[in-house]
Amino acid sequence: MLKRNTTALIALAAATGLAHAETFKINDSTSFGVNVDLGAYYASVKNSSGKTENQIAGKGLNQVKFEGSSKLSGGTKVFGKVEIDFDPVKDNDTVKTDDIKIGVAGAFGQIQIGQFDSYAEDKVFEALGVGHGEYGFVTEAKSGNDGRHIQYTNKLGPLSIGVDITHMAKANDATKSSTGTAVALVYKIDALTLGYAHDKISAYDADGNDASAKSTDGFSVNYKLGDTQLIGFVGKTKPVSGSDSTNYSGVAAKYQMGAVDFGLAFQRVKTGSTTNNETSFGVGYQAYKDMTLYADMVKKGLSSKKGDAFEVGVMYSF
After folding, report:
1. Contacts of 290 (CB under 8 A, 6+ apart)
2. pLDDT, tens digit, for every residue of 21-71?
3. Confidence category of residue 16, pLDDT binned at 50, 70, 90
4. Sign of the dihedral defined by the CA atoms of residues 273, 235, 294, 40, in that order
5. Nearest to 289 by CA among 9, 85, 54
6. pLDDT for 87-121, tens place per residue?
7. CA angle 141-37-307, nearest 5°?
8. What is the pTM of this model?
9. Fewer beta carbons within 10 angstroms: which end of the chain, N or C?
10. CA 298 → CA 115, 128, 215, 265, 278, distances in Å?
11. SS3 string of the chain?
12. Mean pLDDT across the chain
């Protein structure tokens, strides 16, 4: 999702004190915000035959986000968000929704419903994502559907918890359905953040077809040392049938140097007796306020170099 693709840009903005959203105060209790992300890139990607596919696109980088909140009595807040994705480079591209949520937050925590990434995916499974654009990422451990989604989150001192429930019916037979559940725990103390997540994946994917994975467990660690973040991740995805689980183990580092950020990740992916080693590298440069130029590459370690990619692009937020 686009949230993952703009992680490095958001981090760069935070480090330099930039704001990418305009917030309007409607009255003393209600506010409304608008944020726009624009971008385009050139990507060179190896297909399953080992041939290079070249493209100029904007998929995954372009989004308009509307969000609002209203304070109720007793410190409770009602909020909502709508994200619209589009590709301005592709002719007559289809406009699609991304995250859409409505929720309530208070002393009890936060409850939201809609379509969005699980807490487990955001906080644990995406730990090794150091790229900027669409292709420059190592393989992410499988997680459940984003849609038909209820999430509860809360923070108890240094411990944050997230519980996600999703529901999906079988394609062309809504009498058959399945529920997916995910639980994530994130513990932060000083510069160290530890995460654990278990995702029991729905039997049907986002299109209502049989899912390829049964469950995923993952552990992440993030240590911030000055301008550097050191990251580790291990995980296991169990298949719906058979005994060949997929095991993930990797490390990553992010470094912020003024207007420049660097990211490097290594990951070992093993399914049964098949092992491949992945490498991802990305660099971003804030050329002007709210504008970042980037270059990403990834090598997946597969036969015929399938999935290997190089990408250069530009992103602008306002």
Report:
1. 13, 18, 20, 316, 317, 318
2. 678 888 889 999 999 999 999 999 999 999 999 999 999 999 999 999 999
3. very low
4. positive
5. 9
6. 999 998 899 999 999 999 999 999 999 999 999 99
7. 35
8. 0.89
9. C
10. 29, 12, 26, 9, 7
11. CHHHHCHHHHHHHHHHCCCCEEEEECCCCEEEEEEEEEEEEEEEEECCCCCEEEEEECCCCCEEEEEEEEECHHHCEEEEEEEEECCCCCCCCCCEEEEEEEEEEECCEEEEEEECCCHHHHHHHCCCCCCCCCCCCCCCCCCCCCCCEEEEEEEECCEEEEEEEEEEEECCEEEEEEEEEEEEEEEEECCEEEEEEEEECCCECCCCCECCEEEEEEEEEEEEECCEEEEEEEEEEEECCCCCCEEEEEEEEEEEECCEEEEEEEEEEEECCEEEEEEEEEEEEEEECCEEEEEEEEECCCHHHCCCEEEEEEEEEC
12. 92
Angstrom distances, CA of residue 110 to CA of 92, 104, 128, 227: 38, 6, 26, 31
Structure confidence by residue, pLDDT tens digits, 274-309 = 999 999 999 999 999 999 999 999 999 999 999 999
Evaluate whether 177 touches 169 at the Cβ level (below 8 Å): yes
Q: What is the pLDDT of residue 20?
A: 52
Q: Does residue 310 register a pLDDT over 80? A: yes
Q: Which residue has the tokens 């209790």?
A: 29
Amino acid at 255: Y
Is residue 9 scored above 50 in pLDDT?
no
CA dihedral 7, 10, 11, 13 (to 10 degrees): 160
Close Cβ partners of 199 (under 8 Å, ≥ 6 residues apart) = 118, 120, 121, 125, 142, 143, 144, 164, 180, 181, 182, 215, 216, 217
Confidence of residue 11 (pLDDT cuts 50, 70, 90): very low
